Amino acid sequence: MRAILKFLKSVLLIVLLTLFAYLFVGKAKPAEKTDWGVTFSKTSALDFGLDWKKTFLAILDDLKVKKIRLIARWDEIEKNVGEYDFEDLDWQIEETGKRNGEIILAVGRRLPRWPECFEADYAKNLAEDQKQERILAYVRETINHYKNNKNIKFWQVENEPFLRFFGKCPWLDTKFLEKEIALVKELDPSRSIMLTESGEFSTWIGGARRTEILGTSLYRKVYGRLGYIKYPIPPVFYQRKSNLIKKLFDVKKIIAIEVQAEPWGPKPTKEMTPEEQDISMSFEQFNKNIEYTGNAGFEEAYLWGVEWWYWRKENGDERFWNRAKELF
User: Fold this and answer.
1) What pLDDT sits at residue 20?
2) CB 302 within 8 A of CB 37
3) 8 Å CB contact between 256 and 293
4) C-alpha angle with apex 225: 220 to 229, nearest 5 degrees?
5) Which of 74, 101, 174, 233 has the maximum number of C-beta atoms within 10 A of its C-beta?
6) What pairs with residue 37 in β-bridges?
7) Number of neighbouring beta carbons within 10 Å of residue 113
8) Please, what CATH class does the domain formed by 2-327 belong to?
């Protein structure tokens, strides 16, 4: 028995070393061209004290962004049970459509921006099964409201649902996630669905099993319990991981949906000095992250932090905004 266990441990070690070498050793083939987009959050703009509509129009007209991920937050759309208000999101989608932009629309309870999960106030004291019924109702209403809009290219269902340790969210209910996916497919079978995963802390298998479009985050320097950490991950890691997932699952496309392009520190960005912001997102780091994404082979990537660039610009530092303008 001991001999068998020793043999199995040896095999496992060989497999792990081989996988490590495959993912971390070597050089990636850079993308010939990366199509860039951004994620826009009205809430983030407001947190910086910005006029969110003015900010949004600057993104479309000054940066010339053509690919944008928008957020259909449950707590903003259904403030009272059964009463739906799409006015602000309608405006964002209409203005993007006027400029022939392409939209990814994210729906669900867990969506981009801290604290990750956004529940309608009326539902906070409901039992979880009752909340899920209301989430499905809001998802149904949202998809039906927008499914005839030609500028929406595909739907995103939830945001990084398998990243269990980050955000103020309930424990993942995979059966409910599958209900959401099935509902969106039923309501709009013509469009694909994207699921998103953490680039650094996920195998991507959870999303890859359930969708044909996968979005990954890509972070380089972050702040956590150990202070500031720079991930020691080479670009080849993302490319090899993408290739492996495409071979094992029916995934047609992998997008860098959340590329770090804003600071991550111990307090809200607006409360940090420029010097404190520079620790995790200096102008040099900003450019390195852009270069890294292309070197990892991503042909489509969405930068995270457009509201921050605009806020810096409005406060006299136009470097980030102008550098992004060159990309678009």
Assistant:
1) 46
2) yes
3) yes
4) 25
5) 74
6) 302
7) 18
8) alpha beta
Helices (H), the chain: 2-24, 42-47, 52-61, 74-77, 87-98, 128-146, 174-187, 205-208, 235-248, 274-281, 283-295, 306-314, 319-327
- The residue written with tokens 């495959």 in the block is 22
Distance CA 73, CA 60 (A): 21
| Domain ranges for the chain | 2-327
Tens digits of residue pLDDT in 252-308: 999 999 999 999 999 999 999 999 999 999 999 999 999 999 999 999 999 999 999
Token digits for 125?
């004291």
Average pLDDT for the chain: 93
* Count of H-run helices and E-run strands, the chain: 13, 10
What CA–CA distance (Å, rounded) separates 277 from 272?
6
pTM listed for this prediction: 0.93
